[in-house]
Amino acid sequence: MDSHVYKKASFRLPALANIAVLRFNTRGTSSIRGTSDGVFDGGFAEKKDFDAILDYVLGRALPNPWLIGWSFGTELVLKYGPARANEFTGAVLLSPPLHRVHPAEMAEWNTISNPLYALIPEHDDYLQPAQARERFSAINRAQVIPFEGCKHLWVGEKSVNAVLNSIASIVLGEQTVLPSEYSGPVAEEITEP
Fold it and tell me: InterPro entries from the entry (predicted)?
């Protein structure tokens, strides 16, 4: 939730592309705000976190929800997204490691029509573009998009801008380059519902 990419997405995408962003931590995750309740369970008990946040979005009738996961979060999207396919538009995976996802879980994506995009850094620590193309070939509609010069954590403005422009383009359905400056109103960060 407090990673630089998610934090910048939550500030920039609403202001520059009219895309709302809701970020959260799964159980047992530590950040500058403290540690979430619960204990990390390797992607099993985190299904409750996945369901809770999607229920939160649906309960507020937020339009056009997309699932966006980064690293471990991508595994939750891959494992649990298909069962709730009628409740979200599509999914974007940032730096998916594919450590905890079973091939049968990936194959479930072939039973739904939601678009799936995997944004893969060239120098990722866990899954690089060639490997990603091979692993995601099991999902017919998966689009693997490599990012030259980027790493797993998307460090640096060049990497952040590239990934946020891609997210905006995917969600808006058209090529989008976010402005590099903003002069509109600024809201305070909302930390509680």
Answer: AB_hydrolase_fold
Domains located in the chain, CATH noted: 4-172 (3.40.50.1820)
pLDDT at position 118, please? 99
Contact 144, 123 (CB under 8 A): no
User: For 116-139, what is the HEC assignment?
Assistant: EEEEEECCCCCCCHHHHHHHHCCC
Positive or negative, the CA dihedral 160, 117, 22, 125 is negative
**Tally of helices (H runs) and strands (E runs) in the chain:** 6, 6
CA distance 122 to 101: 21
Query: Longest C-alpha distance within the chain, in Å?
Result: 48
pTM for this entry: 0.92
Look up residue 20 and give its amino acid. A
| Nearest residue to 79 via CA among 107, 60, 55 | 107
- Vertex 145, ends 139 and 151: CA angle to 5°? 120
Note whether 39 and 190 are within 8 A (CB).
Answer: no
Compute the distance between CA of residue 59 and CA of residue 41 in angstroms, rounded to an integer: 26
Q: Provide the pLDDT for residue 5.
A: 94
Residue 185: the pLDDT is 82
Over the chain (193 residues), what is each successive 10-residue block's mean pLDDT?
A: 85 95 82 80 91 96 95 97 98 98 97 98 98 98 98 96 98 97 78 59
Structure-token pair, residue 171: 């969600």
